[in-house]
Specification:
Elements lengths: L2 E7 L13 E2 L2 E2 H10 L6 E6 L2 H9 L3 E4 L7 H9 L6 E4 L9 H13 L5 E7 L13 E4 L5 E5 L18 E10 H8 L5 H6 L4 H5 L5 E4 L10 H13 L3
Parallel strand pairs: 1-4, 1-6, 4-5, 7-11
Antiparallel strand pairs: 2-3, 6-10, 7-10, 8-9
Helix pairs in contact: 3-5
Length: about 250
């Protein structure tokens, strides 16, 4: 296989218990994610990786392929590694289970980038920020890139910082969207990287990649998402879906 998508779906969540099964207009959130990912053209397979029978049953009910993983995993990356370790695959896409508005084109953009250039081992997405309030929102991660669209830094702060506030309107800010793709080889390198100082400070796992000297390709997309971390986020998704058709 060239490309596989894995949706790590953990039932337990400190901020929102059972959120992957939270109801959104009659369907569990996880089903929205799976249905959107199934529309991607470049995925040769799509797997939901879980450690709870409640999640597995729901996923099987809507037709998903499910793989049970160890409960001891502390992050989605470890769960994905367990799933793909025995598989012959070149590229792995980490699809977040709390992104019900993910667009299938986003998945294909990352897959195509990694398939098309063997020098790229990890890729993710960014979206131009249109709402100025998001620039200063620490829950919206910002990213700055070099001239070749490789990440220079990810931050919860407003980057780049403007010494002269009068010029801020002319600056383009980018929101990082947490959809990741890796070559299978790099996925296992990433899994074993030590927790970095910047990662501890910002609480952003991808910073360990940059601190270790590896590069992350960042692809600009016109599509946005609403990640669900809290019940309030869930209501935002419901409101969006009532007025927009996926």
């Amino acid at each position: 296989m060239d490309v596989i998508g894995v949706i790590p779906a953990r039932y337990s969540s400190q901020r929102f218990e059972g959120k992957v099964l939270a109801d959104i207009l009659g369907k569990p959130m996880l089903q929205y994610v799976w249905e959107r990912a199934k529309q991607a053209l470049l995925l040769d397979d799509l797997i939901i990786a879980c450690d709870d029978e409640r999640v597995a049953k729901k996923a099987r009910d809507f037709g998903a392929r499910v793989v049970f993983t160890a409960k001891a995993h502390t992050c989605g990356t470890d769960r994905i590694c367990e799933v793909v370790n025995p598989l012959d695959v070149k590229v792995v896409i980490n699809i977040q289970a709390d992104e019900p508005l993910i667009h299938p084109v986003m998945i294909d953009m990352i897959a195509q980038t990694l398939i098309g250039d063997s020098r790229i081992s990890m890729a993710t997405l960014m979206k131009r920020i249109d709402n100025p309030e998001q620039i200063y929102d620490p829950n919206v991660v910002k990213v700055v890139v070099d001239k070749n669209n490789f990440a220079l830094y990810f931050s919860r702060a407003a980057i780049p910082y403007h010494v002269d506030d009068s010029e801020i309107k002319s600056t383009v800010y980018y929101k990082h969207i947490g959809l990741y793709g890796y070559t299978k080889d790099f996925l296992f390198i990433y899994k074993n990287l030590p927790i970095s100082n910047l990662e501890k400070t910002e609480k952003l796992e991808q910073l360990r990649v940059l601190e270790e000297g590896y590069r992350i390709k960042v692809i600009e997309t016109k599509y946005d998402t609403i990640g669900v971390d809290t019940p309030e986020d869930l209501e935002k998704v419901k409101a969006y879906l009532k007025t927009h058709k996926l």
